[in-house]
Specification:
By secondary structure, the chain is mainly α. It folds into 4 domains: 6-75 and 248-316, HUPs (Rossmann fold); 93-245, 3-Layer(aba) Sandwich (Rossmann fold), CATH 3.40.50.620; 333-381; 389-484, Arc Repressor Mutant, subunit A (Orthogonal Bundle), CATH 1.10.10.350. The chain is built from 20 helices and 13 strands. The chain has helices at residues 19-35, 53-66, 94-106, 117-127, 143-151, 199-209, 222-235, 265-270, 275-283, 298-304, 319-332, 335-348, 357-367, 376-381, 396-400, 404-417, 425-439, 444-455, 463-466, 472-484, and strands at 6-9, 38-41, 73-74, 81-82, 110-113, 157-160, 168-172, 176-180, 188-191, 214-218, 241-245, 248-249, 315-316. The strands form 6 sheets. Strands 5-6-9 form a 3-stranded antiparallel sheet. A hairpin with a 3-residue loop joins strand 7 and strand 8. Helix 16 packs antiparallel against helix 20. The longest helix is centred in the N-terminal third of the chain and has 17 residues, at 19-35. The protein binds glutamic acid. Residues 10-12, 44, 203, 217, 221 line the site of glutamic acid (GLU). Glutamic acid binds next to loops.
Length: 486
């Protein structure tokens, strides 16, 4: 009988969620949802110095923002485990690792290594450039003796015994048959001398006990997979199937890292990106949907996800494309939803705007064509709010032109001559023509003073977009201020 599909995302909570981590989480999530399986969140926090509850919350917040909800794992508010296979924090599973470590020792698959760090360093130095792995110690104490020695205070790590057997072969769901050289791994530590288990060991035990059926993770984990498989075999556990995804690269084809700029989901969140755009974008770094189409909702991704289309070539993180994708998702949002997302930004910037449905519809219809990120709304909308109107120093030259006063006055008369609460873009165009005829000026001597009378400076906002959003009364007060500045 096929195993129930159970996949996991297993972050180490040492900072914000990286876009690479988001992609790993997403592929596992999509696979689970597509297959009717379970998506589990396990917290790999055995590095006690670097793993903090604060970082954990940061990662959970990022995952929640992305909408990658997990079926089992830790609760995002209480951090308590929820699910039948808990606890889901490795720091709370130490007794399980110790128990399995004992089994490996007892079965002869592992041994205590009493060599000190200095001794190991000397071994490394002595083999110089040829060094690949730590050799097995010349003598391995019998387990009872070793345990007594440890009990009397000696410090020892536990190493897993890696015995030859030729090339290692991993059948990878993405890469097919992967062959790794026999000497790729030597006897590796599973339990440090301070009693803390290492990643490869915890991960294998947890994946086994949590009955994980598939593991999708980045290709840099291939050598870990090799070690983890050895642990499954030794303990008689059924190993999950593994798929190793390509790396995400920066524009220079090097592995994506901080020096390429923003790499965490949190940064993109702050930069005004939408979670659906981020998911869509990272989904296509390493996977293709099959056709030419590239813009997908979460549900479409779930529907289309197929492991067969995960690919091995490194995927370049193209910022421009990401921006385009964000703009596309943003423009497709219902106006009410988009407005809700903009609300906190306007509030933070102290931009006050009318809240009527008409205004929301009209302003978003106009401005969303100019928005690639949510943040773009700030400078688009700011001039709508009259409190930001002031005659800027940049307007000085315009104010000195002989014809400016006449333009202001003619413009004022045009506004007075209208009756609606707002002007339309067409009315505005017509009014400019009227001013032109009345004063007999054209080009910059016409347009720049009108601009100054609306936004306080001769350059900036696209007036055909802006004017229909500013109340006629406000336009009047603005031109009066401009007249007063002459
Ligand atoms: N905690 C590991 C990491 O953050 C998980 C790797 C895995 O998926 O096994 O890289």
């Amino acid at each position: 009988m096929a195993r129930p599909i159970r996949v996991r995302f297993a972050p180490s909570p040492t900072g914000y969620l990286h876009v690479g981590g988001a992609r790993t989480a997403l592929y596992n999530y999509l696979f689970a949802k597509n297959q009717g399986g379970t998506f589990i969140l396990r917290i790999e926090d055995t590095d006690l110095e670097r793993s903090t509850d604060e970082s954990l919350r940061m990662q959970l917040d990022d995952l929640k923002w992305l909408g990658l909800d997990w079926d089992e794992g830790v609760d995002s508010t209480t951090l308590e485990s929820k699910g039948d296979y808990g606890p889901y924090r490795q720091s709370q599973r130490l007794d399980l690792y110790r128990k399995h470590c004992d089994q490996l020792l007892e079965k002869g698959f592992a041994y205590y290594d009493f060599r000190t760090d200095e001794e190991l360093e000397q071994i490394k130095q002595a083999s110089g450039e040829k060094f690949t792995r730590i050799p097995r110690p010349e003598t391995i104490l019998d387990l009872t003796e070793a345990r007594e020695k440890v009990a009397s205070g000696a410090s020892a790590a536990v190493r897993f015994k890696v015995d030859g057997g030729g090339e290692h072969v991993i059948n990878d769901l993405v890469r097919g048959e992967v062959r790794l050289p026999e000497d790729m791994v030597g006897d590796f530590i599973i339990m440090r001398s301070n009693g803390m288990p290492v990643y490869n060991f915890c991960c294998a035990i947890d994946d086994a006990l949590m009955e994980i059926s598939h593991v999708f993770r980045a290709e840099e984990h291939l050598s870990n997979t090799l070690r983890q498989k050895m642990i499954y075999d030794a303990l008689g556990f059924e190993a999950p199937e593994f798929g190793h995804m390509s790396l995400i690269l920066g524009q220079d084809k090097q592995k994506l890292s901080k020096r390429h700029g923003a790499t965490s989901c949190h940064q993109y969140h702050e930069m005004g990106y939408l979670p659906e755009a981020l998911l869509n974008f990272v989904a296509l770094l390493g996977w293709s949907a099959g056709g030419d189409e590239e813009v997908f909702s979460r549900d479409q991704l779930i529907d289309k996800f197929d492991v067969k289309r995960l690919h091995t070539a490194g995927a370049v993180f193209d910022e421009e494309k990401f921006k385009w994708m964000n703009a596309t998702h943003l423009r497709a949002l219902p106006h009410q939803k988009l407005w809700e997302l903009l609300g906190p930004l306007f509030e933070k910037e102290n931009i006050s705007l009318p809240e009527s449905e008409d205004f929301i519809d009209k302003s978003l219809t106009i401005f969303k064509t100019k928005m690639e990120t949510l943040l773009d709304a700030i400078e688009l909308f700011r001039p709508v709010d009259e409190k930001y109107f002031e005659i800027s120093d940049e307007a000085t030259e315009v104010l000195e032109w002989e014809t400016t006063k006449a333009v202001f006055e003619a413009w004022r008369a045009q506004i007075k001559g209208q009756s609606g609460m707002y002007l339309t873009a067409d009315e505005f165009g017509e009014m400019q023509n009227q001013v032109k005829d009345a004063v007999g000026v054209k080009g910059k001597h016409l347009f720049m003073p009108i601009r100054v009378a609306i936004i306080g400076k001769p350059h900036g906002a696209d007036l055909k977009m802006l004017v229909p959003l500013v109340e006629r009364e406000s336009l009047l007060r603005r031109v009066d201020k401009a007249l007063a500045a002459l």
